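Can you make up a polypeptide sequence alongside its tokenized fold?
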Amino acid sequence: MNYHLISSILKGVWALDQNTALSYAPLINNVIGNSPIAFEFDQANFSLHSIDRTSAVSSRHNSLSDAPQRSIAVIPLSGPLMKNDQSCGPIGMATIGNYIKEADSNPNIDGIILKIDSPGGTVDGTVALAEIVSNTSKPIIAFADGLIASAALWIGASADEIIAATNKLKLVLLVYS
């Protein structure tokens, strides 16, 4: 059982779109009730991309170190965001921050695009990732490709610019006191 995940769900402070939070109620009920849950995460769905600025060709990478010169790094932020990597789920904000730092220090990368489709996530980790985004030396753009809510909006707002995939962009910021 992933006690770190359960602790984050039950004790953590979340900045998450309300409808998304409510959609997780059955999962939380199963976790609390000790019902077996099969988690699957296809690491292949998370991949780093670079776009060659001269040819506009997109390439997948395990690491940005093999990106060609004059590339733009495309780093996805999708789904609920958590501080640490989950053994039963996606990579965490700490790892995403490391990818952003790697792209920022790579001489072959000219800029960074954060491709965001997220309902938000834990507050724990959001401040650190937002600071990494705001402290990049290279241009960094948040590309809203769907929902950009709460913690995801906090992170996206730290970029140099936010660009929406459509004019129907849904920006959601929940403030709790």
Observations:
- The chain is about 30% helix and 30% strand.
- Residues 93-105 form the longest helix (13 residues).
- The longest strand covers residues 109-118.
- Residues 128 and 167 are 29 Å apart (CA to CA).
